[in-house]
Automatic annotation (TrEMBL):
Domain of life where this protein originates: Bacteria
Record-given protein name: ADP-heptose:LPS heptosyltransferase
A single Gene Ontology CC term: cytosol
UniProt xrefs under SUPFAM superfamilies: UDP-Glycosyltransferase/glycogen phosphorylase
Gene Ontology molecular function terms on file: ADP-heptose-lipopolysaccharide heptosyltransferase activity
Keyword Cell membrane: no
A biological process from GO: lipopolysaccharide core region biosynthetic process
One Pfam family from the record: Glyco_transf_9
InterPro entries: Glyco_trans_9, LPS_LOS_Heptosyltrfase
Keywords for this protein: Glycosyltransferase, Transferase
Length: 310
């Protein structure tokens, strides 16, 4: 079975879309899947089982990127075309079945909207794929040292989604203090590539001079493998937050001006903490450290540390 899967340009949406891919791989063992996605999201799918081809779709003027994608896939007859971008391309290809996600904002979590594209209920959960070589590289990047690791994600693709750096610093100190939930834990700071991510993470790194700095220096599969070794992830609403939840590490997502009801982290051990004020319209400065500490403590209590580190 050959499947064309058109996914997202952003990492967070791409991670959520892995829920559908995992379902398709289970439903159709041996399927050969071509994934088309934006440049920054390619790492989400790089280690996917059954991946036959990964096509990078770089946005162009006058939507010429769609024409370029069509030219690369038109010569094949597809058993299934899944288009999460709601474009017309699915109707311009030979296909036995098409599943096109409709666009526009609507109530409910994004994962439910994705599941509806294939008529799935309940919605499957996102997954994270990484290989043994990613595990080895992550181990090298994390270095020696035992005990738990607290991962922080202080960056985001929109400055208004960023929790103040001094709050991350206070949170890290309280959680890793002798009487904290992660007493003595090492701290890992994560972020994407590029100058903006480095600038956003700089105050947190400066305030935590002993932290492991993986901002922009690891691939997404390597980051997933590193997260799998962490006891807790706390970060802004971002692709890294969704990746952490997909890996299965206890995950706290911080929300203010974006709706957690639509983009909260999804997983067995994931929770969103909202700033005080109107949901989806509150400033991040109105999210107190006490609320995040309480959420982290409660989440870790439901996920014993020996289970997290297993």
């Amino acid at each position: 079975m050959r499947i064309l899967f058109i996914s997202s340009t952003r990492i967070g949406d791409a991670v959520l879309s892995t829920a559908l891919l995992d379902h398709l791989l289970r439903a159709h063992p041996g399927a050969r899947i071509t994934v088309a996605c934006g440049p920054v999201a390619t790492g989400v799918f790089a280690r996917m089982p059954g991946l036959e081809r990964l096509i990078t779709v770089t946005k162009q003027r006058w939507s010429l990127h769609w024409l370029g994608l069509w030219a690369q896939v038109v010569t094949r007859r597809w058993d299934l075309v899944v288009d999460l971008r709601g474009s017309a391309i699915a109707w311009m290809l030979l296909a036995r079945r098409r599943a096109v996600m409709r666009g526009g904002r609507r109530p409910g979590h994004r994962l439910l909207h994705l599941a509806q594209t294939l008529g799935l209920s309940p919605a499957p959960r996102p997954v994270a794929w990484y290989a043994p070589e990613d595990v080895a590289q992550a181990a090298a990047l994390l270095g020696v040292g035992g005990g738990p690791i607290l991962a922080l994600g202080p960056t985001a693709n929109w400055v208004r989604k960023v929790w103040p750096a001094e709050r991350f610093l206070e949170l890290a100190r309280r959680l890793t203090a002798p009487d904290g939930s992660l007493a003595g834990a090492r701290i890992l700071v994560l972020g994407g590539p590029g100058a903006e991510e480095r600038t956003a993470a700089a105050p947190v790194l400066a305030g935590l001079p002993g932290a492991i700095d993986l901002v922009g220096v690891a691939s997404l599969p390597e980051v997933a493998a590193a997260l799998a070794r962490c006891a807790l992830f706390v970060g802004n609403d971002s692709g890294l937050m969704h990746l952490a939840a997909a890996v299965g590490v206890p995950t706290i997502g911080l929300f203010g001006p974006t709706p957690a009801s639509e983009y909260g982290p999804v997983g067995r051990r994931a929770a969103a903490v909202l700033a005080e004020g109107p949901p989806g319209a509150a400033p991040m400065a109105d999210l107190p450290v006490d609320a995040v500490v309480a959420a982290a403590t409660g989440l870790l209590a439901r996920a014993p540390l020996d289970e997290v580190l297993a």
